[in-house]
Amino acid sequence: MASTTATQNAIAQHSANYGSIVTHHPKKQKGITNPLSHVPNPVAHYDTTISKPVRKYLGTYGLFPPEPDTYEIQKKRCLAQLRSKQTNIGKFIYLSQLRHANVHLFYRILTDHFTEITPLVYTPVVGEACQRWSEIYMQPEDKGNIANVLKNWPQEHVEITVVTDGSRILGLGDLGINGMGIPIGKLALYTGCAGIRPEGTLPLTIDLGTSNKAFREDPMYLGSRRDKVSPEEEMEFLDELMVALKDRWPDIVIQFEDWKNPFPSLQRYRNDYAMFNDDIQGTGAVIMGGMIGAVQQSGVAAKDHRAVFLGAGSAGVGVAQQIVDYFVHEGMTEDDAKKCFWLVDSKGLVTLDRGDKLADHKVYFARDDNNGQQFKSLDEVVDFVKPTIIMGLSTIGGAFTPEILQKMAKLNNRPIIFPLSNPVSKSECTFEEAIVNTDGRCLFASGSPFYPYEYKGKTYHPGQGNNMYVFPGIGLGTILCKAIKVTSGMIYASGEALPTMITEEEKERALLYAEITRIRDVSARVAVYVIRAAQKDNVDRLHSLRDMTDEQLEEWVIEKMYDPHKAIEDIEDELDSLAKDLAHTRSLSQDKKQLKL
């Protein structure tokens, strides 16, 4: 019955608030912790806006205040309680409890107050929540075999999971299982931004030990108190997990998040599963989308740009590779395109003759035209390269000094400044610093949110190159077209979609991304581009979508998106339909009796 399904969905969402912890233990069987595998109550049915007849239908009548609320009253009450909290972590805990108690109300408030709520459930506040996860965690844990416990997860139809091992959370380092806040927050955005149903999401944290000695010695730490497992052990464990996930949910989309070394798993699984890594691919796509707009507004052709990247880790290389693809689309050869990039790590400019062994992912961009010179600082590299673009993925707060920003302004009419590190304290510069030191001429996008800034009588608006512009749409598009894998073409298409959503008014304000308040429309457009790319790469399985025009496809995508405002209406409609069916059945029965007479 539909009501049974709704109950299962509610239980699954209750579980999803805290997620599952997959544990690797050298002396015990590998397993998964599902802290809420036997929740007794269908919490989604305790929404105070539900009418009395529906409460009776659901079996909840008399179990909470009798007079139905309106959503406006609910929202007013919740926002007052939220805003009464004195700290951001207090607000994070309150919102977690709200999602646990009333999932539809949580997502209604998230979608209606996106700019206020998003920073509290994801970056930057999720960073503090992860650091204190073992302190604020409020549920017991369980252990068992991976495949068996995945079978115990109450939701029969999981569409997407976010998987982390907590080894590289934002700019905070190895947080072990305290990183669980990341997949939970990420999946909240899949629902809020792209309308993926909350009961179809599964947050997973893999406990592979932690290199964080303080956590290993902390009696409150909930994870295993051992050092990180070897890469071979990690891959063996992931092999088992990936098979178990696909066996349990054959159509599942798997997103990897915040792994210290994300490249091996991406290369190992990308051709056999519908999986992607948001740190590498999502970051690359969203920054590429902003870069398309920046290059157009700069007035400088793609072939004439010179980009200095501070940060040569997985995210930095992923972004650079995605922009190389864009430059190739603009008519350059791949070899010429990659020569537009100079990467800087903790040892200075990445060159082939630097004398150290480069990580594999750095070799592609390593320079061989430095004539034996080694440049140790960002300032030296800027003087050598004379860049048109500086991009920060270093998590070094303030690395773009006033002197460097002023040099960029002297070198370029419209310097492109992208400090992309999270959280705000790790950002390479602030929006104010960028505006003041470039005399308001910079084209700016950041990873962290900044407020508008008034300079010389003009208000400037920052762009935020947040991955939420692309990863929800990538997931939604992959799910809807039933793609068997996530191709490079699908990732590129997600970034390519972003400039198409910028309005003329937004262009006049030099914004490189659409207003975040339109994120659901942006996600729908991204999903359409992703679906078209999947069709082009012949990895889609729902071929009926190929016959739709782009306009028809976008309308269809929007119709498929979960709308928390309609969730209670759907239950009301279900009861109304049942009542009509019952009345019709009774009418037929009476007619039969009269015929017999």
From TrEMBL:
(S)-malate binds at residues 168, 422, 466. It comes from the Eukaryota. Residues 99-270 form the Malic enzyme N-terminal domain. This is Malic enzyme. Its cofactor is Mg(2+); Mn(2+). The active site is at residues 122, 186. Pfam families: malic, Malic_M.
